[in-house]
Amino acid sequence: MVVKKKIKKIVKKTVKKDAAAKKNAAVSVKSETSKGKGSRKGRYFYAVGRRKRAVAQVRLRVGKGQIMINKKEIQEYFSDFILQNILREAQICVGRPDGFDLEIKVGGGGSKGQAEASRHGVARALVLFEPNFRKRLKRAGFLKRDPRKKERKKYGLKRARKAPQFSKR
């Protein structure tokens, strides 16, 4: 025995022309403010960089070249000049070494891994700021995430690959 069910048609209410016009006007105002270089001044561009176990969260603003890492100046955090240079390489590559203020939170890994993770994050943030920088940064290799990580220790070995000393007798 088959029972047929009746299906009711639901009629949707139409939107008045005034409401639709207001909605379109609001959309056009939003699109105007997001365009142009004037809107970039107050904003920051956020990106994450990684290397080995280090993770760096980078905020990039247009500024005078001040670099803060974990709320410390770059000279205080990376006392080694080589590590400071690693961090600045991405900005030098695009030809604006002092054009941006950087605020970086970095953790994990060693000092060199942190510097390289920061450079990776800065390069990604620069691409968000100006997509034309992508070609130069990619050619320099700053946008590529280095996939090399520490290999795990295996049982029967002292380290990842080092075997215990072999004795013949």
Could you tell me the radius of gyration in angstroms?
27 Å
Structural class: alpha+beta
| Number of DSSP strand runs | 5
- Low-pLDDT segments, ≥5 res: 25-38
Helix share of residues?
25-40%
**CATH architecture identity of the domain at 40-140:** 2-Layer Sandwich
Mean pLDDT: 83
CATH structural fold name of the domain at 40-140: Ribosomal Protein S5, domain 2
- Strands of the biggest beta sheet: in what spatial order? 1-2-5-3-4
Number of helices: 5
Q: Order of SSEs, N→C? A: HEEEEHHEHH
Separation of the first and last Cα atoms? 89 Å
Strand content: 15-25%
* Shape category: flat
CATH class call of the domain at 40-140: Alpha Beta
Q: Major sheet, described briefly?
A: 5 strands, mixed
Description of the molecule:
This protein is an alpha+beta fold and 169 residues long. It has a domain of 101 residues: Ribosomal Protein S5, domain 2, CATH 3.30.230. A 5-stranded mixed beta sheet has the order 1-2-5-3-4. Strand 1 and strand 2 form a beta hairpin. The termini are far apart. About 8% of the residues have low confidence.
Tags for this model:
five-stranded mixed β-sheet, alpha+beta, 169 residues, 36% helix, Ribosomal Protein S5, domain 2, 5 strands
